[in-house]
Each structure stands twice: as structure tokens, then as C-alpha cells.
Amino acid sequence: MNSLFLERLHSPERPVIVFDGAMGTNLQVQELTADDFGGLEYEGCNEYLVMTKPEAVAKVHRDFFSAGADVIETDTFGGSTFVLAEYGLQDQTYEMNKVAAELAKCCTAEFSTPDKPRFVAGSMGPGTKLPTLGHITYDELLAAFTVQAEGLYDGGVDLFIVETCQDVLQIKAALNAIEAVFEKKGTRLPLMVSVTMETTGTMLVGSDITAVVSILEPYPIDILGLNCATGPDLMTEHVKYLSETSPFVVSCVPNAGLPENIGGHAHYKLTPMELRMALHRFVEDLGVQVIGGCCGTRPDHIAALAQISQELAPKQRQVRLCQGEGEKGGKGPRPALNYPPAAASIYGAQPYDQDNSFLIVGERLNASGSRKVRELLNEDDWDGLIAIAKKQVKEGAHILDVNVDYVGRNGEADMHEIVSRLVTNVTLPLMLDSTEWTKMEAGLKVAGGKCILNSTNYEDGDERFFKVLELAKTYGAGVVIGCIDEDGMARTAEKKFQIAQRAYRDALEYGLPPHELFFDTLALPISTGIEEDRE
User: Fold this and answer.
1) CATH number at residue 439
2) Is 401 found in the same domain as 454?
3) What is the mean pLDDT of residues 86-105?
4) Annotated binding residues, as ranges?
5) Residue 28: pLDDT over 80
6) Within 13 Å, how many C-alpha atoms sit on residue 207's CB side?
7) Count of CB atoms within 10 A of residue 39's CB?
8) Together in a domain, 263 and 410
9) What's the whole-number average pLDDT of the chain?
10) How high is the pLDDT of residue 166?
11) How far is CA 73 from the centre of its chain?
12) Within this chain, do residues 213 and 361 fall inside the same structural domain, yes or no?
């Protein structure tokens, strides 16, 4: 990937990169009329302004560039198909995003110089529906975001920003949509993800910052940070955790404080100097390198932030750089940095290395080994199955194995149903257990957390082995690898080790890091009655 933006981001001087401020706030002060939006039925659809009154959007872009911003975001925060459908504009999704990107690029050309290059970030907001809560399916999100991402890409954006994220499953869908566009176009662009932590200290669906880092660590993103919801004061602990743990460049794009209702309108009280002082500390003490403003921020806020970039460089912290593609699409081993390898539920992370225990996987929710589970499945008693899961949580399990392999039932539907209930009812990560990869994927499409896939092997040759690795890369998961090859289950220690070595090499070449690989040696007790195991 040849990217001037990344060259600047990772240059030896490591400059502070300043994003723009609030698009919505700065459109509102222009006192636009219904006619400006193309009629009453479109009033409030800021994204449509790139078609009906582009000069209003261009004014916002130019004002922020004049204030000193390095990066402006396209007017496409709500530019996904399912959001535009609320205005009957879904058929214009691709064109509107493309036009928005082209408009921003035209403004960029007016201000960019060799000494201070300017960039356009393609904005992809969360939309109005949360997949973890069942408002929309993963596949519907993926399709919608793919159309939006292709429009932004074809319009010439320099990077993508998936922002104001409220649901980790939504982030996965957006990232995979962008990856699909990269694969189609043959060239990657930088990726930035910005999550929103509410005043409760978590994302809207309950994810804490440890879960965010663990879930997103497997993905090839460049910048991870926070935006919206609060002012910088309530972001401090989250930013500190990112600074100490995240392998990515850290960003912070706060509101101008918490909104206050004055005369029926949201009012933000944080002054430009107050915002500058807060982010100055984040840059100097925590190594935040990307800053900007969200709701309530005007050009004078961004001008104050631009002064930071002229005054100091961020505190040094190690970040992961993009690496060359492997032969099978992988990126090779990645540096561990300070990230503690972990699985995660949507609520929090579960480190693989336990301080006072080995990693305990609860395996009672297993149709292959439990008559009780099979009976509950036959009765469609989902509450009963959830009760089994909750009991294992109380008994000290760290991860819950989920297996619905039961002849005569629709395993994909069962996996979808049970996992969609587990993710909001238990706080532990899930191990999706099946001999069929389609069942694993059915669970992955509703599991926003970071799962472990159980399992893959070479029994059917390379095809199934790599298919499960593909799922792990796509959905950000760990993998259990069984010591089985085309000749069957390995019986001797030497043969088991040979298979494990083969799998390890293949997995690393494919792009999975060592800390996401678990090996099941399939050592059976002599009580099985297999004579050769008694030798």
C-alpha cells in the first residue's frame, strides 16, 4: 500500500494529525431551508446536501482547512443504504458517497501543499440499527456498507474512518465491507476506527475498552480511538488504556463537552482553549497522535488544536505497522507489543494467560456430548440452554464452548439462535464448536465478541483447514487445531508434532499470529479400549 497519509503518520517526526470538527454543527449555523435539502421530505438528511446544495458542504470543508485541519471527513456519516432508505434515497447510495468524496477532494486540492498535505477521510457512521440487538442482520449491514465504501473509494478518499461505533458487530461488518472493496479494486487504503464510549463507561451495547481492543486487534487497521458522546474529561481512562495496550495509533476526537438543552437545542460549552488544553495533555502524556473535534466543535476549536501540532510531538509509544502480504493473503507474524492476547465477549476481554489458573473452557453446552442439551434443543428450550451457560459462568469457566451438532436438526439455525441469545446473556467469550464451518460462521455473524473456533484439521485436506482460517481472519477469532491429517488421527507423539508443525507454518503464512493458535493433541485415555493406545 502506497499511502502519503501513512507516510506522514509514521514519519520520523511523528506529527500530530488534526481532523476537522462537526459537520452537522457547522451546517446548522448556515440556517439551511427545506429547499436547500431538496424539499421537506429530505430536510435533515445532511448527506443529500452534496447533491442539492454542495456549496454548503464545501464551505464546511474549506472553513476547517482554513483553520488548520490536516484531514476533513466526507459528508457521508449517514450515507449507508439502510439510513438513506429512511428518506427513500437508498438507490442513490453509491452516487452520493462518490460525489461527497469528489467534493471533499476538490476542496483538498485548494489547500494541500508539499509541506502540509491535506487528506480526505471517507466517513462511515454506525447507522440507526444495532446488529447485536437484532435490529439488522450482519449480512444486511455488510451489503449496505459495501455499497457505501465503494462509492467513497471511487470518489478518491485517502483513508476510511468507521466512526461513532456503538456496536462491535457493526464494526466488523463495516471493516469486512471495506476489505471486500479493497479486494475488488486491488489496492488498500488506511483504516481508522473510532468508538463511542457513553457516560456509563462502555459502548451502547455494553462493551468496555478492553473488549474493544481485544476484538479489533486481529484486524489490519491503522488508527483506533474515541469520538463523540462526551468531552475529553470522560475519555481519559479509555485513552490511557489505549495508550498502554493498543497496537494501533491512538486518536481522540471529543465533543465540545457534554450537550446541554438550551431552548430545545443542544448546546456545547467547551471552549477552544479548554479543548486544546485537554488534548495537549493526551498528546504529551499518552502519545495520542490523531486529534480533532466532534459534536459542537467549530473552526475555532480546530484552529486551537492545530496549534498543538505546531508545538509538540506525541509521547513515544510503539505501534504496529502494516506488513507485506503473505503468499496466501496473510501478513506474517505481528509484534505482540503490550497487547495481552485474549478472547472477548461483547462486554469484556478474557486473557488467554490466567494469573492463577489455566484457561478453563466450559463444555457442558455441547449437543455432541450431553443428552440434556439434545433434549433442550429438541424442545427449543432456549432459556434452559442459557441456564446451563450461566451455571458454568458461576462455576468459574473462562470461555464457553457451544456445540449444536445434532443429527436431524438445522445446525446453522440452532447456532444462530443460541449464540444470539448468549452474547447478551453471559459475560464470557464463546468457543464455537462444530465439524462444519458453516455452523461456525452462523455463530460468528451474531457474535460481536472475539470467539475461538473449535476446530480445524487436515482430515479433508487443505480446503477445510484453510476455510476455518479464513473465518478466523474475517471475523477476528482464535483457532483450535486438531492433530489430524489425511491419514486420520495421529497416534504417536512424533506424528502429532509433525501435524502441529505443518499447521503452525500454514496458519502463520496465512496471516494468523501465534497467540491465536491452540493445539488439541487429541490424546485419548486408555479406557477407550483402542489397543494401540495401550502400547
Assistant:
1) 3.20.20.20
2) yes
3) 98
4) 228, 294-295
5) yes
6) 32
7) 11
8) no
9) 93
10) 97
11) 19
12) no
